[in-house]
Amino acid sequence: MEVGSELANLLKNNSSDNNIEKLKIQSSLLKENIKKLKVPFWSAEEAAIVEALKLPNVLHPKTPSQKNKVLFTYKTVSDNDKDHLKIGKDNNLIQFTNKENYYLKGDAAVFELGAKFYFSKSLKDTGFIQFSNPDFVKSLIIEGCGHDHTDPNHTFIIHHNEDSKVNVDNRLHLTGGGSLFSFFAYYTKNVLHSNALPLKYFSMGRQYNPVDNEEIGLFNVSQSSVISMFIATKNIEECDAILDETIEVIKNIYSNIGYPYRLSIVTAEKLHMWESLRVSIEMYSTSLKSYIEIGNISVSGDFISKRLMFNYTHEKQNKYPHIISGTILNVPMFLGCVLEQNTEFSIPQEFTVNNWCFKQ
Amino acid sequence: MHKPLEFSKITELLNLMRTDKLGNTCGNKSYYYFGALAELEEALIKYTVSTLIGKDFLLISVPDILPRNLLEGCGMTINTDRTQIYSLDPYHHGHDMYLSGTSEMSLAGLLSNSVHSAEKLPLKLAAVSRCYRAETSNVVEERGTYRVHQFTKVEMFVITKPQESDEMLEYIRNVQQELFTPLGLHMKVLDMPPHELGAPAYRKYDIEVWMPGRNSYGEISSCSNCTDYQSRRLHIKYTENNQDNYVHTLNGTACAIPRMLIALLETHQDPKGKIVIPKVLQPFINGNTFIGKNTQVPKLKLRK
């Protein structure tokens, strides 16, 4: 810049100073240097930001460090030696080929739909709004939600059969309309007014997850029918208050069905990088001899909202909503545990076809 | 005289759907239903499935990711690059992961390599599944959510003895008419000529309904008799008097959500802008009689 203004001065004074030539050369050299520097500077910036984006969310003060904190237990479990896959086969309820390919038949299929409809009704009764979401999202949503979009163990990546060149950062991913991704795809770059909050949504849909576990059965499948929840709140205080309310809602929904379950807050090392707290809905599996997660409620605060520019305005200020989300029901996990209960399998009253319609 | 509005206009006025600016986040032709429209989708599934269960269809929950040989056995041709079918990236996920375009394929797959005793036939199956279709269309008649890449569909799939398949096709068509007539849609059934049939089909009916907003008929359903095309490729047999023979396979759409919603909303809009819910669906949507404007989901506003 200095060279430029000196040059301009000299030109204005019309002097025949041979400084002019010198400065002209100097100026063009400098411009060229800046140009050359831009590229490495950009890539340095890109590298630094991408690394910074790998930093995990801050922990919620209620997240325990030593062991899971059990919040609530409904009924006690009694142990037996049942295995859901064997029961499923013996009773012609499940045909299992591999983790990507399994069928639920007859009452097991009615159970799946009935469970979803029961949850859907219960959530609508408590003020949740129903969504029906797309199954694909682009890479930026995967990355924004705190996953590695290039890692095929995180999400299924759709084959690129367009004529255009493959760009690793702009792929289509099969995640399912029951995934958190599709809710965030809706709210990416969205601006709300503060009085629109809180939002309480749910969707009934699929979830597709690559699983690399060797174990065989419904606890380890790539495709699940789920109920997914998405709540946007104004700030930490509202987020905590609505979390407590939501836990009560979930308790009522599950207790009403009648199977033993418990709710626990999981320890920090079990969290995904985007989570600050997770309440795990657990049932006991007698084949695994342990509790397994059949659903969850996650708090991510403003972590993903910031990354995907979901914001709201309050008194002319831009703020980021605090998010509570969760797969509050994973049907194959749930069905697996239900088949391993002490009693014979039958469709719970709440899920039967007769109860799919409204009665006066 | 009130001029009927198109589905996209109705859903915009009542704030029930988003299709706008989703190319960068979900891919083109994506859509979200919300509020009463998502509830109506659920009501249609409940109505359809409970009707089919009442007619002794066996409900099946199916996988959406299928191997290539199954798709080909059902009569799909898979080209190497540009194709109607989505697949998972072969480098990352292996070479044999295709997304199902219809549960006809997964239901046929369930029965592959099986032998059924004659007295157990016909076997009538039904499934609710997500369907994925890569084909795109730029024709104006297929604008909006008329042709989409992903949708929910209730499908019927039946196997019969060869001599019973003609009669079964009529039965399936009757079930479809029984399902659609109470929805108050104006319907016509077309007996499709051979050049309109896919490779596996021997005979096919299409059902078209009037879509007043679009001012045209649109296909909402079809049913086909594939005779032994699929059963020979997938080895689905029955046994009678100690003799094995190939079954006939048939399939039919019980409810394909996006076009059914277009037909319903365009047919039952009233001049004041509300949507009247057909009586048979009301018990499945909490007793509601109409759909009004949704004020609970905020109007979309995006950052520049």
Automatic annotation (TrEMBL), chain A:
Biological process annotations from GO: seryl-tRNA aminoacylation
All residue ranges annotated as the Aminoacyl-transfer RNA synthetases class-II family profile domain in the record: 119-348
Residues at the site labelled Important for serine binding: T327
InterPro entries associated with the record: aa-tRNA-synt_IIb, aa-tRNA-synth_II, aa-tRNA-synth_II/BPL/LPL, Ser-tRNA-ligase_type_1
Gene Ontology molecular functions: ATP binding; serine-tRNA ligase activity
EC id: 6.1.1.11
Residue ranges of coiled coil: none
Record key words, sorted: Aminoacyl-tRNA synthetase, ATP-binding, Ligase, Nucleotide-binding
UniProt entry tagged with the keyword ATP-binding: yes
Similarity comment: Belongs to the class-II aminoacyl-tRNA synthetase family. Type-1 seryl-tRNA synthetase subfamily.
Protein name per the record: serine--tRNA ligase
UniProtKB/TrEMBL annotation, chain B:
Keywords: Aminoacyl-tRNA synthetase, ATP-binding, Ligase, Nucleotide-binding
Residue span(s) of domain Aminoacyl-transfer RNA synthetases class-II family profile: 39-278
SUPFAM superfamilies recorded: Class II aaRS and biotin synthetases
Keyword Lipoprotein: no
GO BP annotations, alphabetical order: seryl-tRNA aminoacylation
InterPro entries documented for this protein: aa-tRNA-synt_IIb, aa-tRNA-synth_II, aa-tRNA-synth_II/BPL/LPL, Ser-tRNA-ligase_type_1
Class of the enzyme per the UniProt entry, highest EC level: ligase
Enzyme Commission identifier(s): 6.1.1.11
Keyword presence, Lipid metabolism: no
Pfam families: tRNA-synt_2b
PANTHER family linked to this entry: SERYL-TRNA SYNTHETASE
Protein name as annotated: serine--tRNA ligase
Native species: Papilio machaon
Lineage: Eukaryota, Metazoa, Ecdysozoa, Arthropoda, Hexapoda
